[in-house]
Design brief:
The chain is of the alpha+beta class. The chain has two domains: 56 residues, no CATH class; 210 residues, Fumarylacetoacetate hydrolase, domain 2, CATH 3.90.850.10. Helices cover 20% and strands 33% of the residues. The strands form three sheets. Strands 1, 2, 3, 4, 5, 6, 9, 10, 12 and 15 form a ten-stranded mixed beta sheet that branches. Strand 2 and strand 3 form a beta hairpin. Helix 4 runs antiparallel to helix 5. The radius of gyration is 18 Å and the shape is globular. It starts with a strand and ends with a strand. It binds 2,5-dioxopentanoic acid and magnesium ion. The site of 2,5-dioxopentanoic acid has 13 residues, from strand 4 and helix 4.
Length: 279
């Protein structure tokens, strides 16, 4: 099942049908242990309404009062790219060490108000000259600490800033329009298939500048391990989103430009499309 957030409504798509109710409010609707079964129970008393399909043409990010966190260096490709970009600053070792360490790298990515949804504009910083999107499977973890769903995430990153000094990471990762989530919250009956593929396509004036794909089973860590570390000493009253890291990094010669269109697809979830805002 897929749960969409619009300006006014929570809309569920299940079995090819669309449902909504004025009783459903985002934070309480999604923050439930055993979400798939709970929503199935809700649908027993809801009436399918085909006209709701039109309402999901304009979507919000599937986030209310949830914080958005991110994991780093969970794929070999990210480890290599980070070591290379920070080697002059002496930061390379840190990335090699965190890739092998027991404790994962977790960092705060975005509050809801800085995130954008499908169709919204992501941004690149004015004080950065090397920017890339990071296509990431993103977990939704409810306040009880269980993984209840998935969405597509884009962890926009300023590579020159993080490469200059690893201590600049929050500035490379957190700014208005640096996180995109969507198009919906996907809530399968069980865990997502480990053979699921993430793909990305970046277009400039209609021409594809970069494309790549990776399967999520190439990730070094498990989803439950990442969720467990995030929830160790922090409570999330409305649940939390956790990006799981990137396994796709464009070549070093590539940087995003204003107007580029980034399309990230994850099988089963959908495609998140965002244009880089023109400043
Ligand atoms: O340590 C820097 C950030 C890593 C990251 O965002 C990723 O691997 O996806
Ligand atoms: Mg990332």
């Amino acid at each position: 099942m897929h749960i969409f957030k619009t300006e006014q409504q929570v809309i569920v798509k299940h079995g090819g049908e669309f449902f909504s109710s004025s009783q459903w409010s985002w934070d309480t609707f999604i923050n439930r242990k055993g979400l798939h079964q709970q929503v199935l129970n809700d649908l027993r008393t809801a009436e399918a309404d085909g006209s709701l399909e039109e309402n999901i043409q304009t979507l919000k990010a599937p986030v209310g009062h949830q914080e958005i966190w991110a994991s780093g260096v969970t794929y070999l490709r990210s480890r290599e790219a980070r070591m290379e970009e920070s080697k002059d600053a002496g930061g390379g070792d840190f990335y090699a060490k965190v890739y092998d360490a027991l404790r994962p790298e977790l960092f705060f990515k975005s509050s809801a108000h800085r995130a954008v949804g499908h169709g919204g504009n992501v941004r690149i910083r004015n004080d950065s000259g090397w920017n890339v999107p990071e296509p990431e499977l993103t977990l939704f973890i409810c306040s009880a600490g269980t993984i209840e769903g998935y969405t597509v995430g884009n962890d926009m990153s300023s590579r020159d800033i993080e490469g200059e000094n690893p201590l600049y990471l929050p500035q490379a990762k957190c700014y208005d329009g640096a996180a995109a989530l969507g198009p919906c919250l996907y809530v399968p009956q069980g865990p997502i298939d480990p053979r699921t593929v993430i793909s990305i396509e970046i277009s400039r004036r209609g021409k594809i500048m970069f494309s790549d794909e990776i399967s999520i089973d190439r990730m070094k860590r498990s989803h439950s391990e990442l969720a467990e570390y995030l929830f160790r000493e922090m409570s999330f009253p409305f649940g939390a989103y956790l990006m799981t890291g990137t396994g796709i990094v464009p070549p070093d010669s590539f940087t995003l430009s204003y107007g580029d269109v980034i399309a990230i697809s994850i099988a089963g979830i959908g495609t998140l499309i965002n244009e880089v805002a023109v400043q």
